[in-house]
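#struct-pred
JK: can someone run the complex with alpha-D-galactopyranose? inputs below
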Amino acid sequence: PAAAHALDNGLALTPPMGWNSWNKYACKGINEGVVRETADAMASNGMKDAGYQYVIIDDCWQTGRDAEGNIIVDKEKFPNGIKAVADYVHSKGLKFGIYTDAGTKTCGGRPGSLGHEYQDARQYAAWGVDYLKEDWCNTVPGQNSEASYTVMRDALKASGRPILFSICEWGSTKPWLWAGPIGNMWRATGDIQDCWDCKKSWGGNGVVQILDLMNGIESYAGPGHWNDPDMLEVGNGGLTTTENRAHFSMWALLAAPLLAGNDIEHMSADTKEILLNKEVIAIDQDTLGAQGLPAKKDGAIEVWTKKLADGSTAVGLFNRGDTTTLISGSWAAINVKGTTVRDLWAHSDHHADEGYSYAVPKHGAVLLRVK
Ligand code: GLA
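RT: done, structure tokens with the ligand placed:
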């Protein structure tokens, strides 16, 4: 399939990085204090320097519309309004994002943007919004996803402010086929759950289900337009440290947007070490913008590769199974050329003319950069 043309707004030339409130705080827990504390922490704990940029409020910041149709902010959660929060985030050298829905109501039952797209986009621009996620709940019968997201794209453009556009229709109408010229990223799967292997009947997915859903759509990703496997669950408690490392490694191989979804102010040393691994982040942020894919699958074992701009290759040795397994093979069999190997979690170099051989723990991943 032909690669989609990218939305021409100059944004997201590498996968967007930042934090989104949903995975940890959902509807109930989000408020101005959380956003301020998260921005403070990101600006001072190394995340900003590592590339995390957007601080994004997900659902439940809005309550209704006034007589003119202007969106009304939830004053209990955001007593000083949204502009004050955006200004604060900007004062920390970070960017600010917000959430809406293409239907009449958001997934959390707050007002959606249907019929108010231009009005809302103007409001976002006036507040200083830099990133908009638009969801797909409570649409009206017959509502078309491509047409709906095109309206909001045009509204954002007309607002005059560069606003990264994140499409969130969960892969339900194959957005990779049409969203390239409309959004900077689009969810390709149902909502991530904080678990390794846990498909839900309503469409929620564990880490391994999402990885499978991402196979086959690689050609549609590239600078300015990314397949989105959903936000990170690293540090939210449902995954072991090994699983969190594997989750982060695989998202980097996918050239996924890296949106942390945990409590940034109070994260553990392990979580911090994972989210701040600059060598892994560099795989995700590689300027070539290629989405990695499995070069080899053998039962619970997968060997993934991702081409990088300097001619080297990222290689992921991924063990979905329940026992530590030796993963080995030749470079040639996975179409990789190179002899100098950097282990991106051990932070060590070695020489390997023929190939690789690593004992990979249960639900673990080894991530290599091969030159
Ligand atoms: C949907 C989205 C989630 C989140 C919630 C908010 O489920 O896919 O990422 O935004 O709505 O209600």
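RT: quick notes.
Residues 145-158 form the longest helix (14 residues).
The chain has a mean pLDDT of 97.
JK: thanks, will look after standup
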